[in-house]
């Protein structure tokens, strides 16, 4: 039996097939470390992932901030101990940018203080370089989801430390010096004179000397050599 034709006299057109979704754009990463070999190794780890790609590199904290200001960065992976400006100092600067890139600290120092300082600076956490090949990719993905990252093995120590302090009524460790004093301490330890520091930070040499005197008093130190040793011990600079 012949089937009746549609009222319009035309065969209904088929609905168009849904367009297939293309691959997601990889997250754009800025990698900052003063050791070229470290940057090369970390870049190999990250570029091997389909959802991550390193688009910029920096050799110190000042350069990292400058690269981030150019835009196009979703995540900055920052070494803590870099010349001129530490990764923590750079992270504080990046937190003021709009749009604000996520930040993640990479360090050779396994220290609970760095974890809390990283969070205060706006970072998602930190990854020791010793386990970067195992944990860095997941840490980057967590940071891009705006989630804190605690590398496996640190959770128990951090939680135990927090609970012990809560039980005894102790507060979490406070920063012994201000952010400006930290900047000056780092530059002093790197061998810069007061005039050079004043030029780098756009302040007067007299202000530098006053901050330096405050550092000696606060930290109970006597001279530039002891300031340098303190900066090395706390990871502000490398030997």
UniProtKB/TrEMBL annotation:
<dbReference type="GO" id="GO:0000160">
    <property type="term" value="P:phosphorelay signal transduction system"/>
</dbReference>
<dbReference type="Pfam" id="PF00196">
    <property type="entry name" value="GerE"/>
</dbReference>
<feature type="region of interest" description="Disordered">
    <location>
        <begin position="1"/>
        <end position="24"/>
    </location>
</feature>
<dbReference type="InterPro" id="IPR058245">
    <property type="entry name" value="NreC/VraR/RcsB-like_REC"/>
</dbReference>
<dbReference type="GO" id="GO:0003677">
    <property type="term" value="F:DNA binding"/>
</dbReference>
<protein>
    <submittedName>
        <fullName>Response regulator transcription factor</fullName>
    </submittedName>
</protein>
<dbReference type="GO" id="GO:0006355">
    <property type="term" value="P:regulation of DNA-templated transcription"/>
</dbReference>
<keyword id="KW-0238">DNA-binding</keyword>
<dbReference type="InterPro" id="IPR039420">
    <property type="entry name" value="WalR-like"/>
</dbReference>
<dbReference type="InterPro" id="IPR000792">
    <property type="entry name" value="Tscrpt_reg_LuxR_C"/>
</dbReference>
<keyword id="KW-0597">Phosphoprotein</keyword>
<feature type="compositionally biased region" description="Low complexity">
    <location>
        <begin position="12"/>
        <end position="24"/>
    </location>
</feature>
<keyword id="KW-0805">Transcription regulation</keyword>
<feature type="modified residue" description="4-aspartylphosphate">
    <location>
        <position position="79"/>
    </location>
</feature>
<dbReference type="InterPro" id="IPR011006">
    <property type="entry name" value="CheY-like_superfamily"/>
</dbReference>
<dbReference type="InterPro" id="IPR001789">
    <property type="entry name" value="Sig_transdc_resp-reg_receiver"/>
</dbReference>
<keyword id="KW-0804">Transcription</keyword>
<feature type="domain" description="HTH luxR-type">
    <location>
        <begin position="170"/>
        <end position="235"/>
    </location>
</feature>
<dbReference type="Pfam" id="PF00072">
    <property type="entry name" value="Response_reg"/>
</dbReference>
<feature type="domain" description="Response regulatory">
    <location>
        <begin position="28"/>
        <end position="144"/>
    </location>
</feature>
<dbReference type="InterPro" id="IPR016032">
    <property type="entry name" value="Sig_transdc_resp-reg_C-effctor"/>
</dbReference>
């Amino acid at each position: 039996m012949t089937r009746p034709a549609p009222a319009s006299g035309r065969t209904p057109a088929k609905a168009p097939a849904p367009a297939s979704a293309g691959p997601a754009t990889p997250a754009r990463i800025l990698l900052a470390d003063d050791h070229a070999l470290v940057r090369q190794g970390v870049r190999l780890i990250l570029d091997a992932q389909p959802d991550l790609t390193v688009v910029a590199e920096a050799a110190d904290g000042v350069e990292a901030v400058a690269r981030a200001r150019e835009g196009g960065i979703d995540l900055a992976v920052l070494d803590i101990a870099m010349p001129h400006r530490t990764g923590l100092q750079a992270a504080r600067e990046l937190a003021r940018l709009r749009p604000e890139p996520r930040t993640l600290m990479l360090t050779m120092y396994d220290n609970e203080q760095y974890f809390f300082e990283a969070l205060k600076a706006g970072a998602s956490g930190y990854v020791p370089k010793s386990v970067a090949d195992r944990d860095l990719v997941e840490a980057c993905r967590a940071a891009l989801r705006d989630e804190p990252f605690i590398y496996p093995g640190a959770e128990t120590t951090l939680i135990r430390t927090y609970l012990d302090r809560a039980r005894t009524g102790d507060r979490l460790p406070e920063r012994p010096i201000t952010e400006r004093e930290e900047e000056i301490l780092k530059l002093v330890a790197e061998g810069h004179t007061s005039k050079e520091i004043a030029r780098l930070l756009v302040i007067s040499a007299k202000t530098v000397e006053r901050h330096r005197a405050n550092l000696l008093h606060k930290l109970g130190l006597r001279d530039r050599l002891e300031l340098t040793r303190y900066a090395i011990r706390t990871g502000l600079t490398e030997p």
